[in-house]
Write a structure and sequence with these properties.
2 copies of one chain form a homodimer.
Chain A lengths: L7 H13 L5 H12 L5 H13 L3 E5 L12 E5 L1 H20 L11
Antiparallel strand pairs in A: 1-2
Helix pairs in contact in A: 1-2, 1-3
Chain B binds a DNA duplex (30 and 30 nucleotides) through α1 and α3.
Chain lengths: ~110, ~110
DNA sequence: AGTTATTTTCGATTTTGCAGAACAAATAAA
DNA sequence: TTTATTTGTTCTGCAAAATCGAAAATAACT
């Protein structure tokens, strides 16, 4: 219970990987991250975060066989490990707890 | 809509300030942060974050008159600005949106 | 004036976030 | 069968965020 805190971007990336599932490879992640959060990050940036998350054992990855598209290299597909999920879970839970204690709920985002 | 992303610790601090209200001064924040999240941060760390948030205009602060306790200096009480609230709101909303797209809700923290 | 508790300020360091260029692989086109 | 083009990976490097520890202030009480 040390609280292996996730950086804010790391957290977004973990979420995207969970959402994308078998489609969780860099380009897709980058694209989807932009579509959903309006954030456009360089590929290098994403790779750095991805490998940092991997060395923290929050992500694992495997190569898929190359497809027959123009320039279609084999892609590395990521998935969130159990540790990654619980880190995410913990961060979410803590914030939820705090959020519930904020007086004047007016400003809050409605759950439900 | 630039996405003035909050760091993960910055976000926790903003939340604590909102929760603590008139009691939002460093020592209290530190103490409460530890109580609620199990995280023990050094005072210096907190001050750095607090002033970063202030220069981003997410926090404002005023001095209270010193109380009559032994060693009781006047404390600087913080409060979250409108900009701070919306930054918080935005971060929360984005994550909520993503969270809702994660397949296999089982692992998720229940809202409600 | 000196002691004591509380808060703020000041380096210094590690970890995260992010960009861009160089490199590698695969295929389409010339 | 070379060359161009697209897709993906690695490397280098800097900026911003997270932290610590110690030094300076400040305020009451002796």
């Amino acid at each position: 219970m040390k609280g292996s805190n996730l950086g804010e971007f790391e957290e977004l990336v973990l979420l995207m990987v969970m959402i994308l599932q078998e489609e969780a490879y860099v380009l897709k992640i980058q694209e989807e991250l932009h579509a959903q959060t309006g954030r456009k990050v360089a590929m290098g940036a994403l790779h750095t975060t991805l490998s940092r998350l991997t060395s923290k054992d929050f992500l694992t990855s495997v190569f898929t066989g190359a497809t027959q598209e123009r320039g279609g290299r084999r892609k590395r597909v990521y998935s969130v490990s159990a540790a990654g999920k619980s880190a995410l879970q913990e961060a979410t839970a803590i914030r939820k707890t705090l959020l519930d204690q904020v007086p004047n709920y007016a400003w809050q985002v409605r759950y439900i």
